[in-house]
Sequence to fold (369 residues):
Amino acid sequence: MPKSDIFFATNRALRDADEDVFVEMTTRLSVRSKVHLGVATVRREDDPTQKIDEAFVVESVRRIEPKQTGGVDPDPVGGAALKPFFNSVFESISHPKAQILLHVHGFAVRFDVALHRAAELQHQYRPSVSSRYQAPQPAVISFIWPSSGKLFRKSVLEGLSGLLYCEDRTRARASGAVFGAFLAAFARAYKSYYRGAGPEVALVAHSMGNWVLENALAKFSAANAKPFLKHAFLMAADCDRSALKSGGGLAPLRDMAEQISVYYSVSDLPIKTAPKWCDEWPDQRLGESGPPRSAAHRFPNVEIVNCDHVCVTGGWDHVCHQFYRLRGEVLQDVRWTLEGRPAAYRRTGWAADEGHRHWRLELNDDYYR
Fold:
């Protein structure tokens, strides 16, 4: 039964400020915008009949922070307290081809499930075993914001009145400043530790995790906006489809990442219906149709990946929203991207205008899980 170490930072409040472990986390924001830091050991079951959503178990969780602080200030000015945490991450990497994966989960995700998802991506995004680019599993840092952990307050019978989506959105927005400071501290620690060539760093944000990211970038210092990400994967992004354009909320990411990949599907039900749940949000989402195809939205380091043909994943509650972790075609595409293979090698070309990269993943029965 393989085990993984998942590093995490969370702005959730502890139920008990004196806890040594993080087994019980609330859905409240931590006081004074502090983060709690730790590492979890997650076990993956090898039973082939086990459903993927039930295949991961958190065995243990421990702190990597001074117990007496009640959390760490992630602000770059006071970011020295984060150094032991980042050093633990960097020291865990021994293979020269290893990568670092930064993960931000979506809405309705519990603390333990966020760790499960991170362990799942660590396993699934590892470069292909049969590839000459073979590399070990990436080191993963998951930012776990205080999502409610469920879709409805009591049951689905409550309908939209009981939906917790908009409350999660408020928590995600409030988490942006903390995650922005954490990202800035990571960038500084990475550059200080490696002083040159270090492991490649990739960011994966799913669903409302992109809204956390967008609000984080609003607080991200321009001085830290030099590229430190090799890849940024925006999966089923729950934000304005124009967010990547100049002046948009995700625009700073274009300066922080060498390559940005936007994976979307018009059949993604949560993304399609999100505007109906929170009235002030725009009608079209980045995760539903990708960015607009006009010249104002063309950027050399942004590619668009249509997942319409590969979005179905079987679970009644997945509704074309979980393809980033459950569809073999998408997983293979991500792995090949991380390996640096050319897009033309792995995708059916779609469309489009000069300087605009728009691709479509085709159904492959060999990859379906």
Observations:
- The first helix runs from residue 83 to 91.
- The first strand starts at residue 3 and ends at 10.
